[in-house]
Amino acid sequence: MADPPACCAACATCLLCPYSCRWITAKKKRKGLRTTKCDCSWFLFLFCVFLFTLVWLYFAIIILNDFHNFNEFIFKQRKLWLDWSLVLLIATAVLITYSSVLLVLALCLQLCGQPLKLHWLHKILLILTALVVAAAFTGLGIKWAEEWRSARISLQATGPFLHIGAVGGMTLLAWPLASFVYRTHNTGLKVFLLLVYCTVMIALYLAPLGITSPCLMEENQLPPKPALVGHRGAPMLAPENTLMSLHKAVDCDVQVFETDVMVSADGVPFLMHDEELTRTTNVQAVFPERAALNSTAFNWTDLQQLDAGSWFLKRKPFPTVQSLSAGDRQQATKQRIPSLGQALEAAKQSNISIMFDLRPENHSDYQSFVNATLAVILQSGIPLQQVLWLPDGFREQVKQQVPGVQQVYGRKRLQNEKEPLLHVNLPYQDMSSEEIRQYRQDNISVNLYVVNQPWLFSVLWCSGVSSVTTNACQVLKEMKHPIWLLPSSTYLMIWIVVDCVSFLTILWAFLLLKKCSHRRRPAESETDVLLTKINSLMQE
Predict the structure, then answer these.
(1) Beta-sheet pairing, 256-263 with 269-271
(2) 3-state secondary structure at position 357
(3) Where in this chain does the record put each GP-PDE domain (predicted)?
(4) Is the pLDDT of residue 265 over 50?
């Protein structure tokens, strides 16, 4: 490679010290410290690790919508509660910051004409970074495969902006690339790098042809805002599956209170999600020898002795717990496990619907659970159209005994459906925007769960979903409009402008650096001639 022009010693030292752990001196420069092919390979590896880590950062942000499920899973396995999303974000921030700083240093060194001598410690850390991110992706694919579908949905919200960001980033790379191309004498490497760069840029310029989003529409085409279904109430504002949580959900304008029902040993239906009581009550303190038993093994008198609210303040399942008022904190400590009858009465007084699953469905006495639950519904006096029935077990019996109850199915419709489905309740990953639109046209109410992030709510809003189940009703309540909404013509104009500006910037970078390289060559030639003459005189 040709010797590049040097920057000032201070700049070179500031760049080389963190990247190469070297000090630039005249003596070292005379020894010919140059970038070798091995150094170029390590720079390419650094660039790949940066992109790999950047993609993981994107995934980490996307899976935050569902991370509370992961926290619950870990608690079920290890009996340890921790907000693992903080661990994820901190670790990801460290990795992306490290690789970003190294990449910026390398690009600055290239622009300043300094050698890319990556220190051995950085090489080890980069390999470890790549292995950690690869392990994270592998674990995601094995234990949480549905998040790949979440990422695909997220591209409908971020695709247009990722395109602009990618074009901008690759455009900026034109400067160090042009600098390298005009300095190296390796023709094969020049051609290879230029071909790769041009291929990537052409792909990015044409990427919007494959970008689709339900939010690319006219304002007058926007469907109505989806109704909100409180997932176990308002679990960010109150202990889940309590009357306080129900009332907080009502304050968030939810139309449906979603919960889970179990039946005690003496036949009283009550609200509880987990099969064990350890996560959301103080059962370990009150009944330590029975704490590991199934919730259905306790009678109603025992369940009423449990504190169902203090855990919420202690474990802080959501960051919003820290901002609760003193009154809410005091109210939370007074919460007890509510019976289904109490929940139905509260729903009737608040004029909201209640949707529930009856658990566990594999219990040997499940039919008696169904009978006890139906009896409570009929005794409560709640209008039956306000009750949404989710369990599949003994559904025909339920239809006969309480025909007014709305049947909600946890599956898509079948081709030869005997009775038309009026309500479906599915994970948000299980329905595409096209299916949502088709169900809407066929007057089928679609509820998707669990939707917490505004970006996801915006995509489903634009798709035309009827309602969403959410933990963050207080956040989605305040949304008066999707995060973004663009007419297709406007996006087309943005696409063309971005691509044109990028192309002209790249052209300008290559022409400018070519002109600068031509100016340097005469000066370098004169210096070489002078040094040759001095060397000849000294030899004489």
Answers:
(1) antiparallel
(2) strand
(3) 226-480
(4) yes
Q: State which CATH number among 3.20.20.190, 1.50.40.10, 3.40.30.10, 1.10.10.1100 fits the domain covering 228-477.
A: 3.20.20.190
Residues 6+ apart with CB under 8 A from 494: 160, 164, 486
Both structure tokens of 306 = 């449990």
CA 117/CA 109 separation, integer angstroms: 10
Picking from 337, 340, 353, the residue whose alpha carbon sits closest to that of residue 274 is: 337
Residue 329: HSE in the Cβ half-sphere, 13 Å Cα cutoff: 10
- Residue 242 pLDDT more than 50? yes
Preceding amide of 450 cis, omega within 30: yes
Structure tokens, 284: 């370990």
* Residues facing residue 425 across a β-bridge: 447
d(CA 448, CA 469): 6
67 CB contacts (<8 Å, ≥6 apart)? 84, 85, 88
pTM here? 0.90
For 381-412, what is each residue's pLDDT tens digit?
A: 999 999 999 999 899 999 999 999 999 999 99
DSSP state of 10: H
Give the residue extent of every domain in the chain. Answer: 36-216+489-519, 228-477
Amino acid, res. 24: I
Residue 208: cis peptide before it, omega within 30 degrees of 0: no
Residue 504 CA to residue 384 CA, distance in Å, equals 66
- CA 148 from centre of chain: 10
262: enclosing H helix or E strand? strand 256-263
Q: Facing residues of 389 across strands? A: 356, 407
Q: Which helix H or strand E contains 79, and what residues bound it?
A: none
- The angle formed by the CA atoms of residues 453, 459 and 460, to the nearest 5 degrees, is 90
Residue type for 286, please? Answer: V
- Compute the distance between CA of residue 156 and CA of residue 459 in angstroms, rounded to an integer: 7
